[in-house]
Amino acid sequence: MSNPEAFELQIIYTQILRDKNNKVSFKDFTLNLNVHNYFYPASTVKFPIAILALEKLNTIDKTSKDIQYSIEGKPKKLRFSEEITKVFTVSENEASTNLLEFIGFDYLNESMKAKGLSPFRISHRLSSPNAGEPKSKSITLYKADNSVVTFPEITNKSSIPLTINKLKKGIGFMKDDVLVNEPFDFSNKNYYPLETLHNTLKRIVFPEAFKESERFNLTESNRQFILFSMQNLPKNAGYDPIEYYDGYCKFFMFGDTKENIPASIKIYNKIGEAYGTLTDCAYIVDTENNVEFMVSATILVNKNGVFNDGIYEYDEIGFPFLAELGRQLYAKNLKK
To answer: Is the pTM of this model over 0.85?
Structure first.
């Protein structure tokens, strides 16, 4: 906290205010928030991908989150609900790519903008050999009435390089195990600034606080499924609790421990971790102690300034910082 610029630290903290009729309003506090200072969003982009997969599905008759679909070139049938579960509980890259293939870049980008969630730009898949391929593959849906429909491949618009601050980072990067001695250029990467991410969370948790045009077009059961998936712990979704401990995808409060999260505390969140950048966006609730607040933060921990080398101070600085930030904000709300 004494040198936030060095860590490219940005924080948003939101008090949830309720009037006598339980109507919600927000009081936001920020540190170093700047939509024009780039950070790599990593897996946080899976949050709108999951939401908008259900929103798009909602426009197609005789479908639900539990139907199956298949992607051209992949023989295996997938289930929307299962892919969304993987996206939140263990932040699986392949699951988000499978959902993105159904949505398409243009639908995703235009839908976010239409809801006032901008700036925002998704231009590539995560950990995929065809990451930036503008074509989305054809999709076959297996509907609830046993009918089958195939949607042709979509050619999405080509992305334009970003022109904001801090796009070139560090002193070098690894490419094919060779060190390249120049800054790493993020101008063609995904762009999901903290404020847009935080506002996405507000719309999912408290849609009634927004105009209808700014809300996601979800059924209430689908919105509740997203919320359930966000707070669900890996062990409750069938994952090995040793490898996928409670804090595995819960950086605030529990990112630096392998202890179990108390049953009264629910953390509805989405994390990102890549290139030395850790990001979390969370709505934290403790029903027993009447605690609720929102917090989003991003921090870069890359002391040697080399990107893609796998040498980052996640365990020494990143996870302990975000965990302590969450704990201190929890304590602040607990006192009230």
So the answer is: yes
